[in-house]
Amino acid sequence: MAATPSPPPAPPKPTWDPGQPEGPFPWLRPTIRIRLTLLYGGMFLIAGILLLSIIYLLAAQALREGNALPFKIVGGQKVEVSSSTCPGVGIDQSIEQFNAAIGQCILDQRKHALDDLLSRSLMALMGLSVIAFAFGYAMAGRVLSPLGKITRTARRVVGSDLTRRIELDGPDDELKELADTFDEMLDRLERAFTAQQRFVANASHELRTPLAINRTLLEVHLSDPGAPVELQQLGKTLLATNERSEQLVEGLLLLARSENQIVERKPVDLAEVASRAIDQARGEALAKGVEIRGERALAVVQGNGVLLERIALNLVQNAVRYNVPEGGWVEVTTEVQHGQAVLLVSNTGPVVPAYEVDNLFEPFRRLRTERTGSDKGVGLGLSIARSVARAHGGRILATPREGGGLVMRVTLPL
C-alpha cells in the first residue's frame, strides 16, 4: 500500500492584510483603500474650491454693480451724523467731506463682507473635506472588504488547506466574479496537488521496492564464496549501479517533497547540523586528503532538522568531491548576521566561471557537462539544497572563489 499523502505545507505569512495595515506608519502605505480615499476626498475638495470661487466671484460682481451710493446729501443746515462703523464720518464736516466718508465706508463694508464670506466658506469647506475624507475612507473599506476576504482565504489556502473556498456573497459584480474565478482555480489546484501527492507516494513505493530486492539478491550472490571471480565482479558492478539508482530515486523524491513549504517546524541549530554533516563526510575527505575546518557558532532556526542536515551534507560532500588533488580544504562556518542564520561552505577546487554558477543548481547539471557521468553523485545535490532552502523561506547563493573553488552561502530566517 502506498503511504497516505500528507497535506500540502503552509507558506510564509504575507506581510499585508487589506483590513489591517501593518507597520509603524500604516497611513503612509499606498494601499488601494488610501488611494481611493484620496481620490474621493480630492474630488470633493476640488469641487468645493470651484464652487466657493464661483460664489465669491458672483458675490463680488453683485456688490460692484451696486457700487453707487444709495444716497447723497446735497444741502441743508445743521446736519449732525455720528457712526460707530464709519469712523470717517464726523460732526464738523462739510457736505463734500461727509459724502466722501460715506462712500469710503460703504466700500470698506463691502470688502469686509467679501472677506468674511471667504473665511467662513473656507472653514466650512475644510470641515466638510475632513468629513468627506473620513466618509470616503469608510466607503472604500466597505467596497474593498471582499478583497480582504479573498486575501485572508488565499493566505489560509495556499499550500496548507486547499479545501477552503471564498464563496463570496453579494451582487454579481467584478469582485464576485474574481472570487468565483479564484474558487475555480483552487478546485484545479486541489486536484493537481492530490494527484502529485498520490504519484509521489506510489512512486516511493513502486521504485524503492524493486531496487531493494535487487540489492538483496546481489548481496546474497556476492556472499557466496564459491562464485566465480567474473560473476563477483559483475555483481559488484550491478550493485554499484543499483546503489546509484537508489540514490537517484531518493534524491528525486526528496526534491519533489522539498519544493513545498515546511509544515512542522522545530528549533534547529545550524552548528549542530553542520557538525553532523562534517562527521558523515569526514571519511571521504580523509581519503581524498581534504582538510575540513571552520568555526561554527550557535545559529538556531525554525525548520526541519533532517532537511537542513541534507543541505549541509550536500554542500560539504560537493566541496570535498570537487576539490584539488592535493592540499585541498573545506571551510564550514555558521553564524547569525542581520537577523538571519548563515551557513557558509567554502572550498578550494577548479576555477568556476561566473556564468556557469547558476547552472550548477539545475538538476543533473554539472560544471562543463550537461548530464551526470561520473561516480561523484547523481547531480541533484545542489538542486535539493536550493529547494530545501526555499521551503524554509531562505536562499542559497554560490560565488566563485578567487583562485578556484566556490563559496556557498545559505541564509535562513531565525
Automatic annotation (TrEMBL):
Catalytic activity: ATP + protein L-histidine = ADP + protein N-phospho-L-histidine
Domain HAMP: 141-194
Ranges where the record places region Disordered: 1-22
Database matches in Pfam families: HAMP (PF00672), HATPase_c (PF02518), HisKA (PF00512)
Molecular-function annotations in GO: phosphorelay sensor kinase activity
The keyword Kinase belongs to this UniProt entry's keyword annotation: yes
Entry keyword set: Kinase, Membrane, Phosphoprotein, Transferase, Transmembrane, Transmembrane helix, Two-component regulatory system
UniProt name for this protein: histidine kinase
Organism (species): Streptomyces katrae
Lineage: Bacteria, Bacillati, Actinomycetota, Actinomycetes, Kitasatosporales
